[in-house]
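[recover] target loaded
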């Protein structure tokens, strides 16, 4: 979470590459929040996945609010949707892996 905050505190993310920059930024958002959800789920346990998602989603919203205060940055609600998509993808993947592991154990 501190790394996400530090990255959001940068005044300039990189050179303006148009659509490629937006795609790269979306990929980073998707990945970092998938990882954040996964770490919280691991810390809280599989049965607390909704709590892990709530924490990660709250951080996604706070991240965008924070960016609105940083000179040269702006807040984009689409980023929160991309973050949520990353969390959802991680949640589905982890659930599938757990079902597969449970099937082998029995």
């Amino acid at each position: 979470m501190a790394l996400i905050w530090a990255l959001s505190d940068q005044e300039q993310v990189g050179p303006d590459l148009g659509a490629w920059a937006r795609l790269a930024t979306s990929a980073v958002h998707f990945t970092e929040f998938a990882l954040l959800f996964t770490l919280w789920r691991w810390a809280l346990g599989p049965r607390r996945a909704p709590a892990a998602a709530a924490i990660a989603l709250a951080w996604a919203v706070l991240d965008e609010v924070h960016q609105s205060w940083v000179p040269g940055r702006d807040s984009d609600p689409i980023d929160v949707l991309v973050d949520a998509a990353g969390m959802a993808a991680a949640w589905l993947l982890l659930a599938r892996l757990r079902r597969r592991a449970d099937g082998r154990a029995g």
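[recover] notes: The two ends are 37 Å apart (CA to CA).
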